Amino acid sequence: xxxxxxxxxxxxxxxxxxxxxxxxxxxxxxxxxxxxxxxxxxxxxxxxxxxxxxxxxxxxxxxxxxxxxxxxxxxxxxxxxxxxxxxxxxxxxxxxxxxxxxxxxxxxxxxxxxxxxxxxxxxxxxxxxxxxxxxxxxxxxxxxxxxxxxxxxxxxxxxxxxxxxxxxxxxxxxxxxxxxxxxxxxxxxxxxxxxxxxxxxxxxxxxxxxxxxxxxxxxxxxxxxxxxxxxxxxxxxxxxx
Length: 241
Ligand SMILES: *[C@@H]1O[C@H](CO)[C@@H](O)[C@H](O)[C@H]1NC(C)=O
Ligand SMILES: *[C@@H]1O[C@H](CO)[C@@H](O)[C@H](O)[C@H]1NC(C)=O
Ligand SMILES: *[C@@H]1O[C@H](CO)[C@@H](O)[C@H](O)[C@H]1NC(C)=O
Ligand SMILES: *[C@@H]1O[C@H](CO)[C@@H](O)[C@H](O)[C@H]1NC(C)=O
Ligand SMILES: *[C@@H]1O[C@H](CO)[C@@H](O)[C@H](O)[C@H]1NC(C)=O
Ligand SMILES: *[C@@H]1O[C@H](CO)[C@@H](O)[C@H](O)[C@H]1NC(C)=O
Prior knowledge:
This protein is an alpha/beta fold.
């Protein structure tokens, strides 16, 4: 390869990188315009910069791709943009304790590097997308204290790294999928304060012995039967109301 060919190849690669970074910036700008931001926490989000990596509340890796969005407790209101699903390297989506409305976009299931999805204490409605079962890297899935309805997707049984699943204080109905019994890494299962029925599946109870499960809270639902376990590792199982 001649020197000029190499040089133009390098320029092409650099240009591609910049386009890529701008693409993530564009996604965040689309999200910003969907939100109401009364405390101007997003005022450093300048779309004219080559990438979003210097914006406050945004963290990038050394390839200028976004890996964290830290906007918990920021008084933001409005919906989640489906375009957030395009932040391919995102590991932490921290949007808890805001006034976010609307549904959880199905597209968030495309965030296959995500470790933590924290959308708790918002005003989210609609059902939990089954696509979240694609995020095999998830360790923390906290959607509690919203107005989510519908069932718990059985696909969540694919989340084999999950430690905390907290869906408490919503309006979820139906029964607890037995597939959750696949999650040997699960430590806390908080489903209290919903509209769930049925019994805790055998496969889930088995995790107390075979897995890492130390807390199951299903109190304050429409579940039948009573299961109490006073084993050392288990703090609470309350299946009756
Ligand atoms: C939100 O911020 C306020 C004031 O800074 C603080 O008192 C409160 O504990 C925070 N809430 C959460 C859920 O982090
Ligand atoms: C993202 O997810 C949606 C819905 O789950 C899907 O239709 C779409 O093809 C995905 N996009 C990419 C780029 O993977
Ligand atoms: C259970 O917890 C231990 C100690 O935290 C950890 O080393 C182990 O990997 C966990 N098991 C699973 C299946 O995640
Ligand atoms: C379980 O949930 C109930 C009701 O939602 C709550 O009052 C209780 O404190 C929870 N138990 C534990 C151990 O967190
Ligand atoms: C919760 O369940 C009860 C009893 O099955 C039902 O009457 C009620 O409509 C349900 N509420 C929601 C929000 O699903
Ligand atoms: C649970 O309750 C429903 C309705 O109250 C009843 O039909 C069902 O037989 C009960 N199941 C068990 C296992 O007790």
